[in-house]
Design brief:
- This protein is mainly alpha-helical and about 350 residues long.
- It has three domains: about 50 residues, no CATH class; about 110 residues, DNA polymerase, domain 1; about 170 residues, Orthogonal Bundle (hpI Integrase, Chain A).
- The chain is built from 15 helices and ten strands.
- The protein has a three-stranded antiparallel sheet with strand order 1-2-3, covered by helices on one side. A three-stranded antiparallel sheet has the order 6-7-10. Strands 4-5 form a two-stranded antiparallel sheet.
- Strand 2 and strand 3 form a beta hairpin.
- Helix 3 packs across helix 5, helix 8 runs antiparallel to helix 10 and helix 8 crosses helix 12.
- The longest helix is centred in the middle third of the chain and has 22 residues.
- It is globular, with a radius of gyration of 26 Å.
- The model has no long low-confidence stretch (mean pLDDT about 90).
């Protein structure tokens, strides 16, 4: 073992050693703050044992192996989301169980507990899509063990999944409903933001990352190449959701004019400055309060994106053009998301009948 006393605190110990990761790469590992040499040596020993998969290891150990290996491949907000789901919904049940002891019946009992649980915020059962997301995290950890450590099988596969992949049909606002809502928004920053969301179909994170250099006032376009989130009290700017999310969107002149007027009201705006100095919460709170006070059908912020898609589909914009505008990685994603909004057979028949009458 390579444990030594810390130079800046001789009463504490640290361990520092090299190891070979799952990709065959040699890595350096260091851990400080142990009270004794024995604790430091034991931590090093456990770490080296953990990276060598053993069916007798605990689920907690497998989780730590899994996360250390995938962490470099994930964005910060994805890491936080996965950690929350696993540490709050999976580890409390499985962490002390040995991998060799976890079978289909254990997974089924865990799933049953989730199905019976209620969301403490709403006092209602968890949404099917949320249950699906939690179940997917457990599946991913066992898939990792099967793929990289020769675990014989994934016990989740034998039981099957819970929840649903797709949420119920999207809530949307028609143009008339949005017009009623936007006329009630008094805050200038919110008014501009809601207008951009509805008329561009961009995501809220993409909106909040916009800077003045992203606006081309001559061509009526908005450039999207970043996304904003507030994570653990810090402003975090990342790349958008997918490569196809980096795009340029045309918007109506009314929105461009509002952007011009808003910029004139800002003190010495810099091209690198974010246009919106707020978080998603400000928009969520506003839409909730305005709808409640005025007895309007409340939708989520993300549903403004669905409303934009519905508006264009109803006007005959083809699915390929819509997919590009929304920044979807694949056209199939757009089809799967908005298939219920595509014109029905009755509408198609009506169009054809009109064409035949015109031709005759």
């Amino acid at each position: 073992m390579t444990s030594k006393r810390m130079k800046n605190n001789p009463n504490k110990w640290y361990c520092s050693f090299r190891y070979v990761n799952l990709d065959g790469e040699t890595k350096q590992k260091k851990k400080e703050g142990f009270n004794t040499k024995k604790e430091a040596d034991e931590w090093e020993r456990n770490f080296l044992n953990d990276i060598k998969f053993n069916p007798e290891m605990t689920f907690q150990g497998l989780y730590e192996m899994y996360f250390e290996d995938i962490r470099p491949r994930l964005k910060e907000h994805t890491i936080l989301s996965k950690e929350y789901l696993i540490e709050n919904k999976i580890l409390p049940y499985f962490k002390d169980l040995k991998i060799s002891e976890i079978g289909p019946i254990d997974v089924q009992r865990w799933q049953n507990k989730l199905l019976e649980a209620v969301n403490p915020k709403t006092n209602k059962p968890y949404a099917p899509t949320y249950l699906k997301s939690i179940n997917n995290q457990l599946t991913a950890i066992f898939n990792y063990a099967v793929k990289f450590h020769n675990l014989k099988n994934n016990p989740v596969h034998k039981v099957g999944s819970i929840g649903a992949k797709n949420a119920p049909e999207k809530e949307i606002w028609s143009l008339e409903e949005f017009t009623i809502f936007i006329d009630l928004v008094e805050d200038k920053e919110l008014h501009l933001g809601f207008n951009i969301l509805y008329w561009s179909g961009c995501r809220i994170g993409e909106l909040l990352a916009l800077t003045w250099k992203d606006i081309d006032f001559n061509r009526n376009t908005v450039n999207i190449d970043e996304s904003y989130q507030r994570l653990q009290g810090k402003d975090v700017i990342t790349e958008p959701k997918t490569k196809k999310s980096i795009r340029e969107i045309t918007v109506i002149k009314a929105v461009i004019d509002e952007l011009k007027n808003y910029k004139e009201s800002v003190y010495k705006p810099n091209n690198e400055d974010r246009i919106f100095h707020c978080t998603k919460h400000k928009f969520e709170h506003a839409i909730t309060q305005i709808c409640k006070r005025n007895n309007l059908n409340k939708i989520r912020i993300h549903d403004l994106r669905h409303s934009h898609a519905s508006l264009l589909l109803n006007e005959g914009i083809n699915i390929v053009a819509l997919s590009k505008r929304l920044g979807h990685e694949k056209v199939s994603t757009t089809l799967n998301t908005y298939s219920h909004m595509i014109p029905s057979d009755d509408k198609i028949l009506k169009v054809m009948e009109n064409l035949s009458v015109t031709k005759s």
